[in-house]
Amino acid sequence: MLQIKNLTVTHLKDLRTILKDFSFTLNDGDKAVIIGEEGNGKSTLLKLIYDEDLVRDYVEFTGEIIKNDIKFGYLAQELSVEQKSQSVFEFCSKVPSFYDLTPKKLSNIAFQLGLNPEMFYSDQIVGTLSGGEKVKLQFAGILMAQPDALLLDEPSNDIDIDTLEWLEKFINSCRLPVLFISHDETLIERTANVIIHIEQVRRKTLSRYTIEKMPYRQYVEERLSLLSHQEQVARKEQSEYEKQQEKFRQIQAKVEHQQNAISRGDPHGGRLLKKKMKAVKSMGKRFEKEHENMAQIPDVEEAIMVKFSEDVNVPNGKAVLNFELDKLCVENRILSKNIKLNVTGSEKICMIGKNGIGKTTLLKVIAENLLARKDLKAAYMPQDYEDLLDLTVTPVEFLSVTGHKDEITKIRTFLGSVKYTADEMKHSISEMSGGQKAKLLFLKMILDGSNVLILDEPTRNFSPISNPVIRDVLKSYSGAIISISHDRKYISEVCDKIYRLTDTGLVML
Fold first, then answer.
1. pLDDT of residue 445
2. How far is CA 280 from the centre of its chain?
3. How many Å apart are CA 368 and CA 381, to the nearest integer?
4. What b/e string do you get for 119-139 counting C-beta neighbours within 10 Å, with b at 16 or more?
5. Are 440 and 399 in contact (CB under 8 A)?
6. Which runs of E-coded beta strand occur in 448-490?
7. Average pLDDT over the chain, rounded to an integer
8. Within 13 Å of residue 352, how many CA atoms lie on the same side as its CB?
9. Looking at the predicted structure, is the pLDDT value of residue 298 above 60?
10. How is residue 142 annotated by DSSP?
11. What secondary structure letter does DSSP report for 121?
12. In whole angstroms, what is the distance from residue 105 CA to residue 52 CA?
């Protein structure tokens, strides 16, 4: 199968090594997930395996990728502009083997994906499909090509819970080896049997990786246990070293005092003290060598997010939202009717529903309502970050209001605390990963003291390592949250009330 030997990948712009001496073999039966913090090169690795031409413009690499004539099925993170403008039939007809497949084989592919075979001949424009339909169509194109292995870049993005559950079953029942990237912890827990963890430590100056053949939850628990033990040993050894050093300094000071006090008329005593001082210095060098070999406190790439101030809150009885809408429409098409939603105090609510039912459209209407209020400090995080972010400015410029020196210093401190490097603070936002952009929007909300958050898929671009931290921040938040999410851990851990959007309105679950 696929073999990777001593692969080193370097970013051309800042010469940062994003993967070093990486070796891995994808075997039959493997469902291998690549995890790691935002911007660690996960998608770059997958593209490089599939087609090195996809990354030549921004990275260089050494090492071997031995494909052994494997035919890969690659699911990109996003459809291209050209693909979105095609009809479904045009999309399918671009697959070289489409016309060679019998109706029976096409029906089998459709059955695997839960699609009607007639969809492959549809005139509907791909860009108008729901998120789940787009993912399934991409899978259809991949399976039509009859691949030997699957490379999936964020297949769980933008799909509803029903489609997520289908994806889990598909990966588990698929007879092909699968190498995939996902931020959805539940999906990873239910499918992956190999964990590839890529990290950037020492302020993103050192790349390292871990490969373990075990379920994700076991990996997380064993990793945390190992790190905790290593930290305990390191702190104990450091404490003992400091006691040892204090005793050593006392001995050294005593010998130095004796040397200073000895009479010049006592050469024998002077020689003895000189030998004693030599022994003391030898002891000091031995202690220094032992210190170099002591256990170190783990240097890990754990996620960090600044919390909201405890002063940011909404009084318990305050009416945050009393919303009614007779019809929710898109281009004269009615998506839902008789929508009612009331939010009071610091309630945290989440709306779920099938792709295409209008959740994002509804949230935008709610955001317009709340952002205009003077008695609340509302903030909106859209699904498409570019609706709010000017991609040409730097993170510091985006967060700055006054431009004063003290404000800039505070902003840099905040950015540093969520692991932006000094170089990244100077880069334009266009160069940031999705997770880094999401962190910017969260920092903006925190710095502005927002007490009502309107969030469209708030965890969708955070890694499995970051997401527990983000959930903890939102769980402890004292303001109100109105959100959309398909992240099952976010829904269960953060939200007080769950509503399903249907064609007849919002239904509380």
1. 95
2. 52
3. 12
4. bbebeeebeebbbbbbbbbbb
5. yes
6. 452-456, 480-484
7. 88
8. 19
9. no
10. H
11. G
12. 31
What are the tokens at 407? 């404000």
Helix axes 434-448 and 405-417, enclosed angle (nearest 10)? 130
Contact 42, 198 (CB under 8 A): yes
* 252-293 pLDDT, tens digit each: 888 777 777 776 667 766 777 777 778 877 877 777 776 666
* DSSP-derived secondary structure for 260-307: HHS-TT-HHHHHHHHHHHHHHHHHHHHHHHHHHTS-----------PP
Question: In degrees to the nearest 10, what's the CA dihedral of 143, 147, 149, 154?
Answer: -40
Average pLDDT value for residue range 286-314: 73
pLDDT score, position 95: 92
Confirm if 126 and 85 have CB atoms less than 8 A apart: yes
Residue 401: count of CB within 10 angstroms of its CB: 10
Stated pTM of the model: 0.79
The yes-or-no verdict on residue 229 having pLDDT over 60 is no
DSSP 157-220: TT--HHHHHHHHHHHHH-SS-EEEE---HHHHHHH-SEEEEEEEETTTTEEEEEEE-S-HHHHH
pLDDT, residue 219, reads 93
C-alpha 187: how far from its chain's center? 14
CB within 8 Å of 502: residues ≥ 6 apart: 336, 353, 357
Q: Can you give the length of the chain in residues?
A: 509
15 vs 335: CA distance, rounded Å: 49
Question: What distances in angstroms separate CA 489 from CA 466, 495, 509, one per listed residue?
Answer: 13, 10, 16
DSSP characters over 401-447:
SS--HHHHHHHHHHHHHTT--HHHHHS-GGGS-HHHHHHHHHHHHHH
For the chain, what percent of residues have pLDDT higher than 70? 94
Beta carbons within 10 angstroms of residue 440's beta carbon: 21
Span 82-131, pLDDT tens digits: 999 999 999 999 998 999 999 999 999 999 888 889 999 999 999 888 77
Show the tokens assigned to 98.
């489409």
Taking alpha carbons only, the member of 502, 491, 419 closest to residue 460 is 491
**Distance (Å, rounded) from C-alpha 508 to C-alpha 501?**
9
